[in-house]
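Hi P.,

Sorry for the delay on this. The queue was packed all week, but I finally got your sequence through. Input first:
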Amino acid sequence: MAGSNEVTIDDRTHAILVSGVLWMLVVLASLNEIATTDPGVPLIAPRPGEIVVAMLISLAAVGMGFVVNARARQLRPAHVSAHSRRALYAGLAGVAVGLVVLVQTLILATFDEGLQHRYTRFIAEPWWPPLLRAFSAGVIEEVIFRYIGMAAVAVIVFRRLGNADRAYRSALVSTAVIFGVLHLPDLSLAGVVVVLVNTAAGLLFGWIYWHWGLRYAILCHFIGGLVNQSLGPRLIGLI
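Then the structure:
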């Protein structure tokens, strides 16, 4: 009798198609990172060599994630088909994250003139630069920290502990902490607050990835970034 972890041809085909779509998203996000600059500066069109490099790096990242997730998939709870509901919840969670980061920024900006100046530069922007930045962060960071990072840590820990829940809890906390620390702007009290808030956001994104899947983590991260980067600077400009 076939085991419960057996992957059928249809499953593999579906996984390959999903990986192909994810690869295209990562390529677009990477090219967007190359093209976007500070407000008021024209977009920089990626050069042919940069396009090729972005495609190869994205292929390597998605390929690594595909291999790791093939081993980590059995450690996650089975997903049921409730896509619209999960998309709604992920979107609402993203709004909540964006508002928390926004409040953090509003408070810190009252004590940090440099931070306030940084955000007021975005006030006169049209609507689409924040959209591009939120898209890049949502795709690239979720692929790196969740699709690759969390899955890899979960597989390693599972080999030692033999417990799927503990493995993913360890992966969730460790990658969230790393995610938060890498957002450290400087060694200051404000920097510590930024790290703590981003660590909390990383815990939320990681939980969504663990229980619902990568697409919902990307959606949550994207909406959170959009709320913070489009609404936040404009509100700070009114202070």
